[in-house]
Specification:
Blueprint: E1 19-25, E2 32-36, E3 41-48, E4 51-55, E5 58-62, E6 66-70, E7 76-80, E8 85-91, E9 103-106, H1 109-118, H2 130-142, E10 147-148, E11 151-153, H3 158-169, H4 177-183, H5 188-199, H6 203-220, H7 225-231, H8 237-248, H9 252-263
Antiparallel strand pairs: 1-8, 2-7, 3-6, 3-8, 4-5, 4-7, 5-11, 6-9, 9-10
Helix pairs in contact: 1-2, 7-8
Keywords: DNA-binding, Repressor, Transcription, Transcription regulation
GO molecular function: DNA-binding transcription factor activity; sequence-specific DNA binding
Domain HTH araC/xylS-type: 161-258
């Protein structure tokens, strides 16, 4: 069992440079990255595999060829698939106009190439250097990237948190909303109001989003569609594929094939 902590590899706050990049392969490190924080904001880019982040009472998925933005000063943790290859871009506060809240970004091939290029550079570079100019172009491009809705609101409410923690660890649990209300010792009507107030989603939409997040992570790590469908408790593979297509606009096979083409 790997016990190396990925947070010990590099201290992004050790340099005042506007942005620095690093590459990490989780085959060499423990999949669980404990809760931590740093001054610099962090952009997490998944080149291969996937990673799930927890921050601000939300769960964020980083599927291949997307990125999650975590502003500086926000405590966060992560869990990566064993085969995850990630690029990190740590950005000094105020260096670029990015959202003040965590979000998932759809990033261009240009940004992926620029960040990958910067992973080979020193963390301390002169402000008038070629690396500094590449960094400036990267940040300017990053500010134009659109957001994607690949997060799951969790809430700090104890009842919602209990349900969320159970379903995250046991996604095959197909308990009905009525059954969850009974387990949490609350009426269905009260739980429905609480769920909507705390997460902005109905129970059905929330569980579907959870299944999508887990599916993206599992599929990115090489698990078959059949096994993912079974893990999520779907009665058939077709039912799972239908859910995925309605949410993501294409079947799992087409979704990942398109991203492989984009990466090339």
């Amino acid at each position: 069992m790997k016990t190396n902590d990925a947070t010990q590899v590099f201290d992004p706050d050790a340099t005042p440079c506007p942005a620095v990049a690093r590459h990490l392969e989780f085959v060499d490190y423990a999949a669980e990255v404990p809760v931590h924080t740093h001054r610099k904001g962090q952009l997490i880019i998944a080149l291969y595999g996937a990673v799930i982040c927890r921050a601000e009472n939300d769960i964020w998925i980083v599927p291949p060829h997307c990125a999650v933005w975590i502003p500086g000063g926000i405590p966060h943790s992560a869990k990566a698939t064993w085969n995850a290859h990630l690029n990190y871009l740590f950005i000094e506060p105020g260096a670029v106009a990015l959202p003040e809240k965590c979000c998932t970004l759809a990033i261009s091939q240009l940004i992926k190439e620029l960040v990958d290029r910067l992973t080979h550079e020193s963390i301390d570079y002169p402000p008038d250097s070629h690396v500094a100019r590449l960094t400036r172009v990267t940040l300017d491009e990053l500010a134009t990237m659109p957001q994607q809705k690949l997060s799951l609101p969790v809430s700090s409410n104890p009842k919602i948190r209990t349900m969320a923690d159970t379903l995250v660890s046991q996604p095959e649990d197909r308990s009905t909303f009525k059954e969850w209300a009974k387990r949490l010792a609350i009426s269905e009507r009260s739980l429905a109001r609480l769920m909507l107030r705390e997460t902005g989603l109905t129970f059905g939409r929330w569980r579907q989003q959870l299944h999508l997040i887990i599916a993206l992570q599992e599929l990115a790590s090489g698990v078959s569609v059949q096994n993912v469908a079974a893990k999520l408790g779907y009665e058939s593979v077709n039912a799972f594929i239908t859910m995925f297509r309605k949410t993501m606009g294409s079947t799992p096979a087409h979704y990942f094939a398109e991203r492989k083409i984009s990466a090339r």
